[in-house]
Write a structure and sequence with these properties.
homodimer; 2 domains; mainly alpha; Arc Repressor Mutant, subunit A; DNA-binding
Chain lengths: 212, 212
DNA sequence: CCATGCAGTTAACAACTGTTCTCCGTAATT
DNA sequence: AATTACGGAGAACAGTTGTTAACTGCATGG
């Protein structure tokens, strides 16, 4: 398939990525609905009109950012939920994985948390769709677990949504810990880990007694 | 105490409220970080400079909106959680109350959901503080319940946060149902109610088996 | 009843925004 | 080798923004 694309399209994708990166940086201190097209091109060092070669509007760029932030996350989700082992181990592993992801891509996490309920409709929809896909995938993995024997499809999906929302809340808390002063960072991270662990533990308990 | 304030201060508070109302309306289709001061005054029908008599900036106005949206909600929270009765009844009553609140104050709910992770730091902090107060109050009520016998303070607080976050998620889902086309409204509302009910039921199950 | 205080107005400022049109250089195609 | 396609630059547009200053009218307190 992917035959080496010409030096022309290569350059195009390069500046396109530069626009995305610059936008993501600028969005650390504002929302997408206030992000100006000129602001982005200025940060990249390119003429304002060049923007139109890549995106129709900043809202369009936002949708592309959603794809970049969440699109590549699906395989990770599947393997995380499906990992075998003690349920306590699985909880620890999932939270560790969230923490690492927030550490590696803080701007992406902030963007999703911010724009999930943000002021730009197409972006909200894109995020909602991606999260719905996550929930579906988590549901599929949950269905394989023997614990889920006798569960309704609806109930599996409601639990999956609970897990996905919980994942996002935890990621957002890790992010706040990262943003705070460096001295408190370690302690706050530990605290978030502890609380999130117990919340997942409690949800897991409810899950085991669902069919009583 | 509240001696009838003069016709002067009355007028001031009147336009102040008009500014808040207009801002809340404009924020249905954008985020606070893109809300312009002139935009607000124009909507009210007042000179741009009049804005400064009431707020230092739109961020300042945002903090005032947080107070308006969440400040008066504390008594409701306490009575909701503490209501006696079957745990199933309490769940139904809590969700019914959330649905009614979203119905009555959709713009407030949207504002809080949007700006909780929004681009304006002082507003984020104000919301975080109010939600932390909610969690504390929920914790205090949970502590009175016989089911909480033997629970750590930390564990009560982690459960309280779980409830508060869940409340916000549910409110946001109700809001989305309201915003959709009118034909689907009833069905979507019913669906949200059903899912939220089961999620609270599952969390309640986990709560009862926490000390196993 | 008069002097003070203050909510709101008017006018002006430099700076910024999104968008259009025209142009340039060069990679890609023939 | 000649032609086309296209990413990007440049200049100009009308409109908007936050903020300042000096003002006006009127409710308030002496």
């Amino acid at each position: 398939m992917s035959h080496t694309l010409g030096i022309r399209q290569a350059q195009k994708q390069k500046t396109r990525q530069a626009l995305l990166d610059a936008a993501l940086g600028l969005l650390e201190e504002q929302s997408l609905s206030s992000l100006g097209l000129r602001e982005v091109t200025r940060a990249v060092g390119v003429a304002p009109t060049a923007f139109y070669r890549h995106f129709r509007s900043t809202a369009d760029l936002g949708v592309a950012l959603v794809e970049e932030a969440l699109g590549s996350l699906h395989p990770m989700i599947r393997t995380t939920v499906s990992t075998t082992g003690d349920s306590e181990e699985r909880i620890a592993r999932a939270i560790e994985l969230i923490a690492r992801h927030v550490d590696g891509y803080p701007a992406h996490v902030r963007f999703i948390a911010r724009e999930r309920h943000g002021g730009v409709q197409p972006v909200r929809e894109a995020i909602r769709d991606q999260l719905a896909r996550f929930a579906q995938e988590v549901k599929d993995e949950l269905a394989k677990d023997p614990v889920s024997a006798g569960w309704t499809e609806d109930d599996l999906l409601m639990l999956a949504h609970l897990y996905v929302d919980q994942m996002l809340i935890t990621a957002s808390l890790f992010l706040e810990a990262l943003e705070g002063p460096e001295r408190e960072r370690e302690e706050r991270t530990r605290h978030v880990t502890q609380v999130a662990t117990r919340q997942l533990r409690l949800i897991g308990l409810g899950r085991h007694h669902w069919l009583d």
